[in-house]
Every structure is written in C-alpha cells, then in structure tokens.
Description:
This protein has four domains: 59-140, Immunoglobulin-like, CATH 2.60.40; 144-226, Carboxypeptidase-like, regulatory domain (Immunoglobulin-like); 230-301, Carboxypeptidase-like, regulatory domain (Immunoglobulin-like, Sandwich); 306-385, Carboxypeptidase-like, regulatory domain (Immunoglobulin-like, Sandwich). Helix content is 12%, strand content 42%. It has two helices and 29 strands.
Amino acid sequence: MASQSRGRSTRKQRRARARNPLPRQHAGFRIISLLALLLMAVVIIWTQTRNTEKPLRPLAVLAVLADGTPLPNVEVAFYHTKSVHLGAVHTTKTGPDGSAQLPAEQACGKFFCVAKSTDGNVTQDSVSQDDAGRKARLLFDKPSTIRGHVFDQRGIPAESALVSASFARGPSLAETRVGTDGTFVLRGLSGTLQFLTIRARADGYFCAPFEWNQLSSPDIDLRFVIAPPLRLRVVLPDGRPYPCAVSVKGRPDLAMSTNAKGLITFQHLDPEQRFYVHVHHSSMTFRNDGFAPREEVQLLQLEKPLTLVGRVIDVLGKPAPDVEVRHQHGPRAWIRTKTDGDGRFELPELPAGTTDVFYETPEGQITSDRVKLEDGAAKTNWLIRLRQH
Length: 389
C-alpha cells in the first residue's frame, strides 16, 4: 500500500509540475519570448523603412507646342528653387521626341525648368520628385512682347537700366536694357506665361517690381527712387572680421560672401523696408532686428548663444504642453522648440539683451513676451502665462 501510495503521489507530482512549471523556468521562457518578439518587431520596422525609402529618379520634361507637337533641340536649364542665384544645376537639350531629363543623382528637391526654343521663345515650369515617372510639359505658344518706360525720381529716362522678366523667385527669362528715351522691349516670352514679375535695376536706385499678366496695359511705366545700399560688417565677439556667407531672408537672389574685412554690400533694396539676414555660422548667434539701407556701414556682431529655460501655463495656471516657443534671431529663420507634458521648455541660440519670444498653442493662438538675457548667462525658471483669446 505504501509503495502504491508513493507511486500515485509521484504521478500526481509529475502532472502538477507539467501543469505548473517552476517559477524560474516560466520566467526564462517569458524573457526568451519577449526577446523574440522584440527582434521580430525590429526586423519588420527595418524592412518597412527600407521599402519606403525610395531612391531618387530622373525628372523628365516634354517641350511641346500648344497643339501637342513635340519640339526637338530645345535648351532646358534646371534651377534648384532654393538656390536660383547659383545658376542652373544642369543644362541639356530635348531629343527628337521633345523630351529631356535631369539625372537622378542631381534630382533631389524642387526645380524650375526654363526652356528656350531654337527661335528664341522662352517658357518655364517646375518639377520635383513628386513628378518622377511622368513628364512635365513645357508649353510653347506665340510669344508675347512687353513694352514700357523707366524713369528716375526726376522723370529723366533711366538709360541703360537693366529690365528683366521672371516668375516670383525664379530665374530671369528675358532681359533688356533701357534706351536713351527710357523705353524697353522684352521679347520672346511664350504666350503660355500668364503671370510675370518685371523688374528694373540700376546701381544706387530701387524700383518696385511690376506684376504683369496677359490683361495688363500694353505699356508699363516703372520709376526709380534713390536707394542707398545695405552695407554690413560682420565681426566675431572679439571684434575681429569674420569672412562668411550672408543672405537676405526671402531674397534668394541676394546671397554672397563678405570680404577679408568682413564687409558686404547689397544693392537695389527698397529704402522704406527693413531687411533680415542670415549669417551662416555653426555655433554663434546674433541679434537680427533687421537693417534698413543707408550709406554708412552697419555692424553685425556674432555672439555666444544663450538659452532660455522656462515653463508655460494656461490662463488657469495649469501646465501647457505642446506649445511652440520660438524667436527669430540667429543663423536660422526661426529657432523653435516645444513644451513638454509639464509645460517646460529650453529655447536656445538667443542673443544677449531684450528679445521677443513667441508662444503658439496647438490651436494656433499666439502669445508674445519680451525677455531680457544677460551676456554670458542662461535665464532659468522663466514663467509665461498664455493670454485669453
């Protein structure tokens, strides 16, 4: 009996162990399972990421007449929309079928395509990777002629002033010089170009651009006003000149480098406006309150960046998460950050002195505040309460 009892007990214990593994074995199994699942998730994410990264493809265009007839031997120039002032990145000619393309290795971004036919007719379109796989159409039609007059502020003809036609922020499509009587004629602009910006330039003067369309008056009158240049001297914190690249915000055509003395001059600017610039530096910031054109040299001094550390609360005094905090000083157009779940933020690249800081909620409501920072020290524990709108 005893032996049978022991036998039955042993069988029960085996069955119990089969149903309920030892805690150590159970924990090990769970760890191995979790690791396997984690590895599988990593492989899936990597595979999906790899599949979604599409390689660059060539960008193709097709030059045709208004009736669809393809045009061979058309010269096509591709300009990157963010660096038109640097010139065309690629120039080619259309083949017998009227097609041309920008090679894949150069096709990252968006491009203006300027096409000039063998008879001097010019048209333009744009193309990007969103258009890869199909041909953007460069349409040619009977060319338009744009005529006009250019005078200075005294009403005297502005002889030899340069007049150009382009799309907004695009490359020049046609250029001519003003005659002794103040007249100009722009020719060879395809009739498919419905809107153009007409500009006149002469050193020491500014002329507001004229927005032309197919319904505009046959004759355009442009008038110059005296415009001093914008002269800047870029220096380091210790006053030494800093040779660097400088550009005017919103004007991709105005980008150049300072000379060895840190000096740079921009012409043809509206004397009634203030202009904001970019100074390209990897670690310095600067105060960017804007500069108005004038004869004397204006100083732009780089400085060590400061950080504003603070917290944003709503009208009830509760933390305000996901609020965008930004300022417009320094080497980039806007310096931005967002508050965390507790409403806290760190805003870098601030200059010393008083600075306007903007706070925008996810709903688009904006609050602004002025912060004063001391040179060489970060400001912490700054508290801002959003205003009621």
